[in-house]
From TrEMBL:
<feature type="binding site">
    <location>
        <begin position="226"/>
        <end position="228"/>
    </location>
    <ligand>
        <name>ATP</name>
    </ligand>
</feature>
<dbReference type="InterPro" id="IPR029351">
    <property type="entry name" value="GAD_dom"/>
</dbReference>
<keyword id="KW-0436">Ligase</keyword>
<keyword id="KW-0547">Nucleotide-binding</keyword>
<dbReference type="Pfam" id="PF01336">
    <property type="entry name" value="tRNA_anti-codon"/>
</dbReference>
<dbReference type="InterPro" id="IPR045864">
    <property type="entry name" value="aa-tRNA-synth_II/BPL/LPL"/>
</dbReference>
<dbReference type="InterPro" id="IPR004364">
    <property type="entry name" value="Aa-tRNA-synt_II"/>
</dbReference>
<feature type="binding site">
    <location>
        <begin position="539"/>
        <end position="542"/>
    </location>
    <ligand>
        <name>ATP</name>
    </ligand>
</feature>
<keyword id="KW-0648">Protein biosynthesis</keyword>
<dbReference type="InterPro" id="IPR006195">
    <property type="entry name" value="aa-tRNA-synth_II"/>
</dbReference>
<keyword id="KW-0963">Cytoplasm</keyword>
<feature type="binding site">
    <location>
        <position position="494"/>
    </location>
    <ligand>
        <name>L-aspartate</name>
    </ligand>
</feature>
<protein>
    <recommendedName>
        <fullName>Aspartate--tRNA(Asp/Asn) ligase</fullName>
        <ecNumber>6.1.1.23</ecNumber>
    </recommendedName>
</protein>
<dbReference type="GO" id="GO:0005524">
    <property type="term" value="F:ATP binding"/>
</dbReference>
<dbReference type="InterPro" id="IPR047089">
    <property type="entry name" value="Asp-tRNA-ligase_1_N"/>
</dbReference>
<feature type="binding site">
    <location>
        <position position="453"/>
    </location>
    <ligand>
        <name>L-aspartate</name>
    </ligand>
</feature>
<feature type="binding site">
    <location>
        <position position="180"/>
    </location>
    <ligand>
        <name>L-aspartate</name>
    </ligand>
</feature>
Length: 589
């Protein structure tokens, strides 16, 4: 950094080995302290902080006077000598804490208004203020560290792919609208009035065409766009590391990806134990209630249907007697100590996950039991429940009664909620694959089949006869990369047979005309010797969020949007002129 720069060193690199050297530093004034004849300044850049000392016995009168006038966030250039800090004045919290620079020359490069908030890491500043002045927020050491980490991790991925003969190929940002689950962002064409491009939700179709084109090993750090409701780990524009391989099996793809990820994470100081664990989709759902489980803590789901097959509690007994209905439970250890009113409020939480109510039993520390349903249970049923759920005083057992998937989802949601509410420890990072997702799920709103992953996913070959007989029972060649309870990436093998692709689209409700209108270019390409292929997409923003120890992807993005999709700094989205609309043949209704 110093070779073509106004400084000889950065503010984060000087050490005891530099003592005695003449150096030049540049950065922003962070803190300034006047100690009656001596002035100390903490100078900050993106790499760290160096303490400066202005001593009138070392610097001339003009330099010392300039030091008296400078204020926070002024950019300055200083020159001076690196010296050891006096005994007992080391700052062990700083990498540069053993030294300071005695300044002999200062140049004020610019001045600054008083910032709307202090440039500190541990201040309770409203996020909307931080986003309004994002260019100031980025100066905070934590934000600078996050951006540096993201850059390093992205480079490590590129390096890992490059050394394995992958080609980085850019795909268009203006393409055809092919809705893949979320709304497209549309871009009107000026040259073809009434026609629109779409910003890509992913390069999915294009990377398949690259495989048909013989690229064989492709990757791209791709910007993607989805016009959907936002939350703390989702943005309208996001970055994924997109991958595709041809002439491969599923194990080939997963094995290659594991090595790439292990290399990249190692550069971040995180070790992946290979091979990563693989959990089948239904095993993940039945055990953790979610297809992206955090296995660093327990509170697993238990099927207790058989315990209550002859129960006097009609809800449980009816479920036990009905095919496809289940009684499942989790044990939130420690929550049995909560007051009754606090436990009752959990019913509202369960409702968010689809429950119509929440049956529970609180096992108090004094040995008593609190529950509106326990009076219906026999001693044998309670004993069997205690044994199955490993009940101890202070535990709270919660139940869900529904079909398999819904019961899993209700308790999976409660498991995550209770882990946060109880502050359950989660040490280190947790990596695994979830594999063999269903090919389809039932869309209750549209009353039709929908793809679990996407319409181009390869079904399990030994289940093709189920396409007509029982499509919801079909599995697929799919694999999601799970990190710390988040879906960090996902992929699958692709259909490379045109006739099978036609059948899948037909099952999803596409008429031949609609299939050709939306995916005709892909269908045509599959008829020209498409090879077996499979791929993957890693959510770069989400992974960097987890590496940074944050709970919001805005903390690892330079210029993110708010939850309403607004950019507070630039005031986007904004209105455009009537002339601009007219140029693309649009008018507002």
């Amino acid at each position: 950094m110093a070779q073509h720069s106004m400084h000889t060193h950065t503010c984060g690199e000087l050490r005891e080995s530099n003592i005695g050297e003449e150096v030049t530093l540049t950065g922003w004034v962070w803190h300034r302290r006047d100690h009656g004849g001596l002035i100390f300044v903490d100078l900050r850049d993106r790499t760290g902080v160096t303490q400066l000392e202005f001593d009138p016995e070392v610097c001339d009168e003009g330099t010392f006077h300039e030091a008296e006038t400078i204020r926070s966030e002024w950019p300055i250039q200083v020159s001076g000598t690196v010296r050891e800090r006096p005994e007992g004045q080391d700052n062990e919290k700083l990498a540069t804490g053993a030294i300071e620079v005695y300044v002999t020359k200062i140049v004020v490069l610019n001045t600054s208004k008083t910032p709307p908030f202090q440039i500190e890491d541990h201040l309770d500043t409203a996020e909307d203020v931080r986003l309004r002045y994002r260019y100031l927020d980025l100066r905070r050491p934590k934000m600078a560290q996050n951006l540096k980490m993201r850059s390093d991790f992205t480079f490590a991925l590129r390096e890992a792919f490059h050394k394995r003969a992958f080609m980085e190929v850019e795909t268009p940002s203006l393409f055809k609208s092919t809705p893949e689950g979320a709304r497209d962002f549309l871009v009107p064409s000026r040259m073809q009035p009434g026609h629109f491009y779409a910003l890509p939700q992913s390069p999915q179709l294009l990377k398949e065409l690259l495989m048909v084109g013989g690229v064989e090993r492709y990757y791209q750090v791709a910007k993607c766009f989805r016009d959907e409701d936002l939350r703390k780990d989702r943005q309208p524009e996001f970055t994924q590391v997109d991958v595709e391989m041809s002439f491969v099996s599923q194990d080939d793809v997963m094995g290659e990806l594991e090595e790439v990820l292990a290399d990249a994470f190692a550069k971040m100081g995180v070790k992946l134990e290979l091979p990563l664990r693989r959990i089948n989709y239904w095993d993940a759902m039945d055990t953790y209630g979610i297809d992206k489980p955090d296995t660093r803590y327990g509170m697993t789901l238990h099927d207790v249907t058989s315990i209550f097959s002859n129960s006097k509690f009609k809800l449980f007994a009816s479920a036990a007697a009905t095919e496809g209905q289940y009684v499942k439970a989790i044990n939130a250890k420690g929550a049995g100590k909560w007051p009754r009113a606090k436990i009752d409020r959990l019913a509202d939480v369960a409702a968010e996950f689809g429950a119509k109510g929440l049956a529970y039993i609180a096992f108090r520390e004094d040995g008593s039991v609190t529950s509106p349903i326990v009076k219906f249970f026999s001693d044998d049923e309670m004993a069997a429940l205690r044994s199955e759920m490993e009940v101890e005083p202070g535990d709270l057992v919660m139940f869900a009664v529904a079909d398999r998937l819904q019961a899993d989802q209700i308790l999976g949601g409660m498991r995550c909620h209770m882990a946060d509410a109880l502050d359950v420890p989660r040490q280190g990072h947790d990596f695994l694959w979830v594999v063999n997702f269903p090919l389809f799920h039932w869309d209750e709103d549209r009353k039709c089949l929908d793809s679990e992953h996407q319409p181009f996913t390869q079904p399990n070959e030994d289940q093709l006869d189920l396409l007509e007989a029982d499509p919801l029972a079909m599995g697929s060649h799919t694999y999601d990369f799970v990190m710390d309870g988040y879906e960090a990436g996902g992929g699958g093998m692709r259909i490379h047979d045109a006739k099978l692709q036609e059948k899948i689209l037909e099952k999803l409700g596409f008429t031949p005309e609609r299939a050709h209108a939306q995916f005709g270019f892909l269908m045509d390409a599959l008829e020209f010797g498409a090879p077996p292929m499979g791929g993957f997409a890693l959510g770069l923003d989400r992974v960097c969020m987890l590496l940074a120890g944050a709970d919001n992807i805005r903390e690892v993005m330079a210029f993110p949007k708010t939850s309403s999709g607004s950019d507070l700094m630039s005031d986007a989205p904004s209105e455009v002129s009537g002339k601009q609309l007219k140029e693309v043949s649009l008018r507002l209704l």
